[in-house]
Design brief:
Strand content: 5-15%
Mean pLDDT: 95
Number of strands: 21
Largest sheet: 7 strands, parallel
Helix content: 40-55%
Number of domains: 2
CATH topology of the largest domain: TIM Barrel
Bound molecules: glutamine, zinc ion
Binding site for 5-methyltetrahydropteroyltri-L-glutamate: 19-22, 114, 119, 522-523, 568, 612
Pathway: Amino-acid biosynthesis; L-methionine biosynthesis via de novo pathway; L-methionine from L-homocysteine (MetE route): step 1/1
Cofactor: Zn(2+)
Domain Cobalamin-independent methionine synthase MetE C-terminal/archaeal: 433-755
Active site: 701
Radius of gyration: 27 Å
């Protein structure tokens, strides 16, 4: 192994090519296997990963990329940030770790939240004035030794100390003004201990990730970064230090790190808009390695190697040495395209999953070191694929493009709300505080089996339709019996709110094995949006109209919004996201028109992921929100004034997008609020939407059934900021993960609470 980084990847998937870790974890949690068996599976997965990275020819191989659950939690445990309430359970180390991750009966888990703007979720560490950091757990060293024994020296990867603290929250006993960052010296001391031990093990490089600096940061936070790496860099005994920042441009942090006494910095050239001018004014880079993240670690397209090489070439004079890598860890893409047997044969060659991306990095590294001729075959191959994709007829649909080019301003505007309100009141005649649900009803094993049987081909289409209709009828009868005001069909036909639409739109492909870790053992299989999007035929109309035919109550049609469809897919990178969003919006708009024509007077377009795509840097927010809002309005503005358009958002923290939610101009907006006890209405301008609003009054993330009085209290709290003519009564989100026993009771209480509060108006 050379002493330079050369070619590398910043991290690798760990769930297993066939989700072996998921299955082993779930077996262990269900006590079907013991700890040793779980550890054996983990060891085999680590060995397989190391061997495949080595065989692929990477110059520097990342280590410690494995995790039983989450790498942020691993970092917390490594340095002793285990909250006392978990330590006091008296469990063994592995079960204490799982208690923090998943909770135990007597104790909820740590809070979980999204890892920057990805769909990966990490556990939020708790840090307080009493947290005493030290090298408390030696798993990192074990992984280093295990790799060395396999003949694969590694560069251990850890979350950097400053990012770790920026992702932490004050522990429950800390005062309100406590800032986790105030403990940075102590934490850096613990990292120093680890670095010294790694050096003694003969580890040459260590990678400390600081992605938090791809977002806007204060002077104090930047100063903490400077001090942390000055102090780690001047340790007498340590490996060489490599600090990458990713998911955007590193900004001021790059200046600081280029001056710090470390050996390498990593820059994301895919997500970040990095100007060469900004790099050329950093003299500190001249004696460092610049690790250029040129292969997209978050998306699934083959890399334009010529372009990547051209970028690398411009860097050559700016740094002491230029190495190549993925833009971020490959955790966010599936393992291997070759495992797919059912992919569209025209689209498959355009794709690169983790294994293919490793090869791309290796080719780039060789081209830089040995010259382009050494890899001319690989470069020619990539060139062929890139141009085939660019020219493919499958990618372009002129009708879709013409339609987009001829959009008029009125296509994103509806009548004034007053006009709509009167028309809807007349059409629907709803009472004040109308009750409804967010769409899905519990997905029983029977429903799942029926869908699976259709997919396998062991159930004919007519039988499938009959069974789904029976399910819809059951759900409609239940809602009538409960006395809900606006009914839904229950979504039994949908595996997932994005996948379902992707399967019915052109321009999307689906994978069989393309699993990506979302959190712990949970994986998602995002669809791949590769071409222009259109809707060949109605998608939901048949189910929705069947539901409507069964009842005199209004039935709400249920669609997924364009932004959410993009957020939960792998999206083409050959045109602006805004254009792709508008294409999806037009497809949804067609569905809205058809639902309306079929007699549905209420249509909900869900945008739970609206906030997920919000860029990390504030100066990009406005542009994003502009097109996101426009896409939603394009999807919904074809509706008549008398058609009531609902939207639904969840995954909390709406503060910075309230203005955008208002601009969606939906007639009714339902938002998650039960857990925060309606705070969402007090803290923000939700009350000022001036239109209908349904703050959730039943927390569907918990098996708990809320009492009538509790719901009534929440409604009375909501009435302090929202007039009764605009307040809706609904759960926080869809009910599909709950069971019928809970849901029936909770909805009965919800309807009763609404009735009680209505009487007091
Ligand atoms: N309509 C969807 C459902 O009820 C909404 C899900 C969501 O917001 N995540 O399942
Ligand atoms: Zn939701």
């Amino acid at each position: 192994m050379t002493s330079t980084i050369g070619s590398t990847v910043l991290g690798y998937p760990r769930i297993g090519p066939n989700r072996e870790l998921k299955h082993a974890l779930e077996s262990y949690w269900a006590s079907r296997i013991g700890e040793q068996e779980l550890r054996d599976v983990a060891g085999r997965l680590r060995a397989d990963t190391l061997r495949s990275l080595k065989d692929a020819g990477l110059d520097s191989i990342p280590g410690n990329t494995f995790s039983f659950y989450d790498h942020v939690l691993d970092t917390a445990v490594t340095f002793g940030a285990v909250p006392r309430r978990y330590a006091e359970l008296g469990l063994g180390p592995l079960d204490t770790y799982f208690a923090m991750a998943r909770g135990v009966e007597s104790l909820p888990p740590l809070e979980m939240t999204k890892w920057f703007d990805t769909n990966y979720h990490y556990l939020v560490p708790e840090v307080g004035p009493d947290t005493s950091f030290s090298l408390a757990e030696r798993g990192v060293l074990d992984q280093v030794r295990e790799a060395a024994a396999l003949g694969v020296p590694v560069r251990p990867v850890l979350v950097g100390p400053v990012t770790f603290l920026l992702l932490s929250k004050p522990d429950p006993d800390a005062g309100p003004d406590f800032d986790p960052l105030s403990t940075v010296d102590s934490l850096v001391g613990a990292y120093a201990e680890l670095l010294a031990e790694l050096a003694r093990e003969g580890v040459e490089w260590v990678q400390l990730d600081e992605p938090a600096f791809a977002a806007d940061r204060t002077e104090a936070e930047l100063a903490a970064l400077r001090e942390a790496y000055t102090s780690l860099g001047t340790l007498p005994e340590r490996p060489k230090i490599f600090v990458p920042g990713y998911f955007g441009e590193f900004g001021d942090a790059l200046d600081i790190l280029s001056e710090a006494p470390i050996e390498a910095v990593g820059v994301d050239f895919v997500a970040g808009e990095v100007s060469l001018d900004s790099l050329s004014v950093l003299p500190g880079l001249r004696d460092k390695t610049l690790v250029a993240g040129l292969v997209d670690g978050r998306n699934v397209w083959r890399t334009d190697l010529d372009r990547a090489l051209a970028t690398a070439a411009t860097l050559l004079g700016l740094a002491g040495e230029v190495a190549v890598s993925t833009s971020c860890s490959l955790l966010h893409v599936p393992y291997d395209v070759e495992a797919e047997t059912d992919l569209d044969p025209e689209v498959a060659p355009w794709l690169a999953f983790a294994k293919q991306k490793v090869s791309e990095v290796v080719v780039l590294g060789r081209a830089l070191r040995e010259g382009r001729d050494a890899v001319s075959g690989e470069l020619a191959d990539a060139r062929r694929v890139i141009s085939a994709r660019a020219d493919a007829e499958r990618v372009r649909d002129e009708r879709v493009r013409r339609r987009l080019a001829t959009l008029r301003p009125e296509d994103t505007r509806r009548d004034d709300y007053d006009v709509r309100k009167a028309a809807q009141q007349e059409a629907l005649g709803l009472p004040p505080l109308p009750t409804t649900t967010i769409g899905s009803f519990p997905q029983t094993p029977d429903v799942r089996r029926t869908r699976a049987a259709l997919r396998r081909g062991s159930l004919d289409h007519d039988t499938y339709t009959r069974r789904m209709r029976a399910e819809i009828e059951r759900v409609v009868r239940l809602q009538e019996e409960l006395g809900l005001d606006v009914l839904v069909h229950g979504e039994p036909e949908r595996n997932d709110m994005v996948q379902y639409f992707a399967e019915h739109l052109t321009g999307f492909a689906s994978t069989e094995h393309g699993w990506v870790q979302s959190y712990g053992s949970r994986c998602v299989r995002p669809p791949i949006l590769f071409g222009d999007v259109s809707r060949p035929r109605p998608i939901t109309v048949e189910w929705a109209t069947y539901a409507a035919s069964l009842t005199d109550k209004p039935v709400k049609g249920m669609l997924t919004g364009p932004v959410t469809i993009l957020a939960w897919s792998f999206v083409r990178d050959d045109q602006p996201l805004a254009d792709t969003a508008k294409q999806v919006a037009l497809a949804i708009r067609d569905e809205v028109t058809d639902l309306e024509a079929a007699g549905l007077g209420v249509i909900q377009v869900d945008e739970p992921a609206l906030r997920e795509l919000l860029p990390l840097r504030a100066h990009r927010h406005e542009q994003y929100l502009r097109w996101a809002v426009e896409a939603f309005r394009l999807a919904t503005s074809g509706a008549r004034a008398s058609t009531q358009v609902h939207t639904h958002l969840c995954y909390s923290e709406f503060g910075d997008v309230m203005g955008a939610i208002d601009a969606l101009d939906a007639d009714v907006t339902s938002i998650e609020a039960a857990r925060s006890r309606m705070e969402v209405l007090r803290d923000t301008s939700a009350a000022g939407f001036g239109r209908g609003v349904g703050p959730g009054v039943y927390d569907i993330h918990s098996p708990r059934v809320p009492e009538v009085e509790e719901i009534a209290r929440l409604l009375r709290a909501a009435l302090e900021s929202v007039p009764p003519s605009r307040l809706w009564v609904n759960p926080d989100c869809g009910l599909k993960t709950r069971n019928y026993a809970e849901v029936e009771l909770a909805l009965r209480n919800l309807v009763e609470a609404a009735a009680q509060v209505r009487h007091t108006l």
